[in-house]
Design a protein that fits this description.
By secondary structure, the protein is α+β, with helices and mostly antiparallel strands. The protein contains 2 helices and 3 strands, in the order βββαα. Helices cover 29% and strands 22% of the residues.
């Protein structure tokens, strides 16, 4: 597979939620989102693959300077996915 020929979409945000049985990962680009369900084992392999690839990138190009703050509530919650993304549907206008 030649990576330069695969169609790509810029991902500007990633939201992750989990149940006991699976992880939900939504990748957002503008107002569009692709959502994936992964088993815990697949989610862990994704984490390991990202860690490996980031380490290889930093060996070649230098440290990536960034911060991650756990516990920040995502604007997209699992309930939104289940209810079709409309949190405010019960609110009166």
């Amino acid at each position: 597979m030649e990576l330069s020929k695969i169609p790509k979409q810029f991902c500007e945000n990633v939201n992750i939620g989990a149940t006991q049985e699976f992880f939900i990962i939504s990748m957002l680009s503008g107002q569009n989102a692709m959502t994936y369900a992964l088993t815990p084992a697949h989610a862990k392999r994704l984490s390991q693959s990202l860690a490996y690839n980031i380490a290889e990138f930093e060996k070649r190009f230098g440290e990536i300077k960034t911060e991650w703050t756990p516990g920040v509530e995502s604007p997209m919650q699992m309930i939104d996915i289940k209810e079709g993304g409309n949190k405010d549907k019960d609110k009166k206008e």
